[in-house]
Specification:
Keywords: Lipid metabolism, Lyase. The chain is of the alpha/beta class. It is built from 11 helices and 9 strands. It has a 6-stranded mixed sheet, with helices on both faces. Strands 5-7-8 form a 3-stranded mixed sheet. The longest helix is centred in the first third of the chain and has 19 residues.
């Protein structure tokens, strides 16, 4: 299955995304991530979650090919709702979520990681929000949780990426390790959390969300409204077609 969930003996639940070749999630994939996290929340035997991915990179955002091969706005609306559900599920998961990031983490990937409680990354990991290239807006809410405001705006407007090692100085990435040690490092952090009394940790998670200065759900939903406007204008469709054609020709973003 593309989205799997496994509870370990140490009470750490490992949720894995596997959508080759680049982990660009289709509509159902986003909802499946949300479902896995919601189930983790309800399971009192789950004390912490590690969100990870198989393959070349952690997450390449939404599946643009699915969107362009679907008639009407069903895929667009589905992707918007699916991303919102997945990001919300990470943020509102009753236990801490440790994101284990390998390779590329762009677009929707930043939405997942920005809402996580702890980020561990491999030394080849990088982050970015290239939405403007595809005529969309979104995940600025979550990138702003990884970098300071002016850097976020620069990355957003230029669609540039930033290396995981450069995020350590901002405190948003806890640790950068060699790729072959990523799972080990993420599980170590999650295991340390899971060893605490889960009643206290669950209360702490709710408390920290309660004092968060930004309502991430409302903020992201506001961003999505502009994406819908750009789609109604026809701008997004034009840029997605251009992106899909470029990708088909063998170029990478």
């Amino acid at each position: 299955m593309p989205i799997t969930s496994e509870l370990r003996e140490d009470h750490v639940r490992v949720i894995t995304m596997a959508y080759p070749p680049v982990n660009a999630l289709p509509v159902q994939g986003w909802f499946d991530v949300a479902t896995a996290l919601d189930e983790a929340s309800r399971d009192m035997n789950t004390h912490a979650v590690v969100l990870r991915a198989e393959g070349k990179g952690f997450n390449a955002g939404v599946d643009i090919k699915e969107m362009q091969n679907t008639t009407g706005f069903d895929a667009l609306i589905g992707a918007n709702k699916g991303c919102f559900a997945a990001f919300k599920a990470v943020y509102e998961c009753a236990v801490p979520v440790v994101a284990a990031v390998n390779g590329f983490c762009v677009g929707g990937g930043v939405g997942l990681v920005g809402n996580a409680d702890c980020v561990v990354a491999s030394d080849d990991a990088f982050f970015g929000v290239p939405e403007v290239n595809q005529g969309a807006l979104g995940a600025a809410t979550h990138m702003a949780r990884l970098v300071p405001q002016h850097l976020m705006r620069s990355l957003y407007f230029t669609a540039r990426t930033i290396k995981a090692v450069d995020l350590v100085q901002h405190g948003s990435v806890l640790e950068v390790v060699p790729r072959d040690r990523l799972d080990e490092a993420a599980l170590a952090v999650a295991g340390e959390i899971a060893a605490k009394d889960t009643r206290v940790i669950r209360a702490a998670k709710e408390a920290l969300n309660g004092i968060d200065p930004i309502d991430v759900n409302k903020s992201y939903r506001f961003e999505q409204g502009f994406t819908m406007e750009l789609n109604l204008m026809g701008v997004s469709d034009e840029l997605r077609d251009e992106f899909a054609g470029t990708e088909k020709a063998g170029n990478t973003k």
